User: Fold these one by one.
Assistant:
Number 1:
Amino acid sequence: MNMRDYAILAALAHEPRSGYDLTKWFERVASHFCSAGYSSIYPALARLEGEGWVVYETVPSDRGPERKVYSITEQGKEVLLRWAREPAPDPQTRDEQLVKALSYGMLPAGEVLELLEEVRGRHAQKLAYYEELERGIRIRLRDGKISGEAYLGTLLVLKRAIGGERCYVEWCEEAKAVAPSDGERRTSN
Amino acid sequence: MNMRDYAILAALAHEPRSGYDLTKWFERVASHFCSAGYSSIYPALARLEGEGWVVYETVPSDRGPERKVYSITEQGKEVLLRWAREPAPDPQTRDEQLVKALSYGMLPAGEVLELLEEVRGRHAQKLAYYEELERGIRIRLRDGKISGEAYLGTLLVLKRAIGGERCYVEWCEEAKAVAPSDGERRTSN
DNA sequence: ATAGACATGTAAGGGGTTACATGATTTA
DNA sequence: TAAATCATGTAACCCCTTACATGTCTAT
């Protein structure tokens, strides 16, 4: 039982889903804190079913092959909530951009500004994306298409994504402000 | 050549270090964006030396066994800077706390507030730690104990760490504000 | 008819973490 | 004298990502 298994349980507690739907859900709303592709989700679902935490129902698809729609069991929900109350280890991030930034004092200042502006743009885009998602779930709540229980969890992780991206954009701006302050550095290569 | 190898090159470009020193440096200032323990650093140094990006000098230690103090070569610096100019892939985070938060709509509101307050405390501590480190390198710069080139890179990654932790603390506070808003939820188990 | 989305899986390889292994020196 | 720090490495295992494998349905 790794954290991805619990993420799957939580997603299924929000709403029954197929492996395919789960994969898309991970990509859309959970990829900023927990990654998962087909090749990890399908084996995980089989494992969770073996434990009795989830069950599935085979449902013909509107288009494409048959779907296995999974739901969480009462037992699964108990396991999930017990785990959710325990303290979590510190988050771990892997950010190549910061490794590159370690060397920015050895690059021409003008080039550093350009690089940082590029990074800022990418994160500003992501920020807009998550803000759009947040508007989306608020509407789904108003329309009764999402339960209050599922809403809070989704809202919290989206708020975290928004805050995280906003913060990254701010770092880029701060970095652009301090990068050229070193008058000793050459401005061309 | 993975990103950790470049992080090692960057650290050695800042200042010559032993594998032991590098490990401590990673733990202190780089662990928030790139993890590395002894078992990855020693093989990496051997690899980098084989490529000619770094060289080492054996130096007797004040206390303990002999040290191998590594420095970056001209060739290594070229490789590093060429890489630093290329765009970086998006950062990837693994945060169990957010997986737990997905289920917070299914827990009693009072308990959620307690859990979030605990998390806030841990990140507030980390924030203080990184702010202290930033004060430290400013002093080292003033005292001429760190080069301007090394200073900018270190300052940038510390600023990112500070912003990241500040942001996480803010999320905890925001989350505490929205968590109990769902009047339907039970307040005891 | 061909490309793209729907849908479910398996296999293999690479990278990262944890535990193991050794030994000197200093401090309590 | 026992624990902590200094110091360098190896080995094994686990997880994760990438590629592979198969097949249907819809839209262009």
Number 2:
Amino acid sequence: MVEKQKCLLKASPPFSLDLSMRATQPAAPATYENGVLARALRLSNGRLVPVEVRQIGDSENPIVEVKLLAKVDGKERREIVKMLDRFLCLSDDLKPAHKIMQRDPVLNSILEKLCAVRPWTSLNAYESMICGVLFQQISLNAAFSIIRSLVLGLGDSVVVGDRIYYDFPRPEALARASIERLRACRLSRNKAVYVKGIAQAIVEGFNPEQLGKMPLDEALEVLRGFKGIGLWTAELILATGLKRWEVVPADDLGIRRAVSKFYMGGKTASANDVREVAEAWGPYKWPIAYYLLVASERMQRL
DNA sequence: AGCCAGGCTCTCG
DNA sequence: CGAGAGCATGGC
């Protein structure tokens, strides 16, 4: 029998794991079923630890319970907590963003439903880079399906009881995989090349976390230097993977649809239209754009 | 069934 | 240079 450790984390209110996960399903390897978020996490010492996360307490008094399905020491536990805090935005205070939203009738009207939703976020910069490429062009569901194939095919896993917990494929695994192997995970030929190239750069020492500290223009330039990463992808990576929330991927079709619907009476919105509207959102352009997106096409899921 | 979907690169003219 | 082709899968 596996010894199960638990720890309780506070989230800054308002917070709802359930609304956050249902607004946009988490990409593989994370799963969300019956109120439980699960995946395996690779720690810096190489250990692979499966975790399960659920919320206890309501959105105004949010406590997140983390079940560790392997025995870990104090240092490992702190690392896990840090990863989950980042992934779930537990200690990010969204209240300033909500305050900005209150000044705008459109945004204020969706705030009540969505204030406990956290902006779409990746576990780390690396996963956001790979997934960013895989989200290009095709529908979200198609992309989620491909990411799942990639994780099942090339991700490391650990079995606990009757369940298998996956981690995202390591850069080494993607760099080593042949193009044909990646295509077998249903990537297009081009995306297989891009993903492999990004993974190779990381294996060779590129650290995408450094993008968090660079000036915005520089970070965008570095990202766009990769084959397969254009402006949309670079901005998505900075927003979801590095929490550069002052960024909005203005070319995003969904965000453009949302701006069109709420601010332009249905008239097609260009990327520049999005940037103009988002000018008022200060350093919270991504969270607010995301709220708008969720309000525009995902309300019935919540 | 066919067409479009949270883009990007490469190839032409 | 600007325009156009091609791409993978899922959903309407």
